[in-house]
Specification:
CATH class: Alpha Beta
CATH architecture: 3-Layer(aba) Sandwich
GO biological process, one term: oligosaccharide biosynthetic process
Helix content: 25-40%
InterPro entries: Methyltransf_Superfamily, SAM-dependent_MTases_sf, SAM-MeTfrase_NodS-like
GO molecular function, one term: S-adenosylmethionine-dependent methyltransferase activity
Strand content: 25-35%
Number of strands: 7
Number of domains: 1
Pfam family, one: NodS
Shape: globular
Organism: Klenkia soli
Length: 201
């Protein structure tokens, strides 16, 4: 079963930053990895689903003309908005709130909260939410958490089996998985090339 908003409300009631995103080197390093693999320097419209207190949001904002950040928890939304005054932060959750069309969609540490059925519904939305030529980036913790319906490995296996877009980057290590796709026809070698975008290839 997908974790309800009340699960996260309880976490934010107990701690200002439940996952210590503001202070842990692990988190700062992960944000650096996340932004480093993005193939475009800037995106017209970006969406981050599951923004928590807005630390990754702050790293993504300079890369987007317009960035929207969603979280299911009202407390998280308030903290992320305070951290990111130039970002449109809203209380939304997937799959209940349809994904808008964007050029950059970031799904970081959020999909393993979903049941398999809800994950499949989100992946169906992803295929049309990312505009042609746009980027989808997913990154998730690999270790099992008793409360979560799925693992990061299961989530990325579902993503990899569903999407036939070219992948720009894959990063695997004991703690996390990261995948980055460009929405383009399968088999187009230039679609996943950053150099091709600058006529270097």
């Amino acid at each position: 079963m997908t974790l309800p908003p009340s699960y996260f409300d309880d976490l934010y009631a107990a701690a200002d930053d439940p996952w210590s995103m503001r202070s842990r080197w692990y988190e700062r390093r992960k944000y650096a990895l996340t932004t480093a693999v993005l193939p475009r320097e800037r995106y017209p419209d970006g969406l981050e689903v599951g923004c928590s207190v807005g630390e990754l949001t702050a790293a993504l904002a300079p890369r987007c003309d317009r960035l929207t950040a969603w979280d299911a928890s009202a407390a998280a939304v308030a903290r992320a908005a305070l951290r990111n005054p130039g970002v449109a932060v809203a209380q939304r959750s997937v799959p209940g709130d349809p994904l808008p069309e964007v050029d950059l969609l970031v799904l970081s540490e959020v999909l393993y909260y979903l049941s398999p059925a809800d994950l499949a519904a989100v992946l169906a939305q992803v295929r049309t939410a990312v505009r042609p030529g746009g980027t989808l980036l997913a990154v998730h913790w690999r270790h099992p958490v008793a409360d979560y319906p799925q693992t990061g490995d299961a989530v990325h296996a579902a993503l990899r089996s569903t999407l036939d877009w070219p992948r720009v980057a894959v990063h695997e290590e004991p703690d996390l998985l990261l995948d980055c796709w460009v929405r383009a026809p399968a088999g187009d070698p230039r679609a996943a090339s950053v150099a091709a975008g600058e006529d270097l290839w």
